[in-house]
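User: Hello! I'm new to structural biology and keep hearing that structure can be predicted from sequence alone. Could you demonstrate with Phage portal protein? Please show me the input and the output so I can see what each looks like.

Assistant: Of course. The first part below is the input, the amino acid sequence of Phage portal protein. The second part is the output, the predicted structure written as tokens.
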Amino acid sequence: MAVFDFFKARETQAPEAKASAAGPVMAWHGAGRVAWSPRDMVTLTRTGFAGNPVGFRCVKLIAEAAAALPLVLEDRETRFDAHPVLGVMRRPNPTQGAGEFLEALYAQLLLTGNAYVEAVGAEGAVPVELYVLRSDRMSLVPGADGWPVGYEYSVGGRKHRFAVGEEVSPICHIKSFHPQDDHYGLSPMQAAAQAVDVHNSASRWSKALLDNAARPSGAIVYRGAEGQGSLSTDQYDRLVSEMESHHQGARNAGRPMLLEGGLDWKPMGFSPSDMEFQKTKEAAAREIALAFGVPPMLLGIPGDATYANYQEANRAFYRLTVLPMAQRVAAALIAWLGDFSGEALSLRPDLDQVSALSAERDAQWRRVAEADFLSVAEKRRLLGLPVSAEGEMDD
């Protein structure tokens, strides 16, 4: 009899639900994980530059400062005042001047870790025009040996391929160091991506708080006449409807609430964790500035006392961030442009004209000028000047 009862119980059970065996694994894999924004170039540029004031200011500050540096072109003996390379650098193309061209170049490098310059009209001489191409549209085509054999530029489903052969490449690819990628660079925006997410989320939270009359939320407590603590379904729906239509949003900020039938409003004050919220946002802003190498003092971020004054912070900004990037980009450009003309040239920022470094340059010039044991030629070398014929003969 017990055997028949066992089979009868099996027949009355609910039918077995069919599901993927991998479902629980995927559910556990994603449980409790933080939702970060995508790390592709387009998304990072939108959220970290166009949608974040700290990231925007960091990129603009570095790119504008580096683009404003005066450049000097020279070989071993001569500093040029007029040269085809200087001509194309001063007027790269009909739509851009030197400042706009270099600012776009530095900005692409900061946002994506890669910068691409196209040469136009180069036939055995210096190119006639130079263009900065968008990094998110460019892709490198590696060959069988791993070296690039071409670059593909894609716009709206159409592609143009720049072939890289034995002649000088029509594309100059400047990239930042990336320890895990052989062909593309790592941008500061990628390193600051998590801090950007935190800062953007904090801004959205602040906006929502302002929409709620800049007050924390509260609780409506119900106590019935006979001590019951629950509302009926109709009463609950009516209360929710009135709250949504008459007391939510910036339009209803400060509007008095009329409670009836045993309802009582209990406001909730800010907890200590809420009071620390602004400090979290400031810490995220400092992390973004740290990734780009911009002293937080220059961005107006409070709570940073690393540098004694603004002038010292500005000097460190140029020495540690602007000049290294400008020198690296200038060296890459002149090595590429020199291949067209076959000349051994040097292109570098003129430190004598950087106002932020004037105190350092004055001290250096004074020390070199007072060194009587040095010849004129040696003094010129120490100051980064080309050696003239008279200097070579001077003892």
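User: So the tokens describe the shape?

Assistant: Right, they're a compact way of writing down the 3D structure. Reading them back into a model, for example: Confidence is low (pLDDT under 50) at residues 23-36, 389-395.
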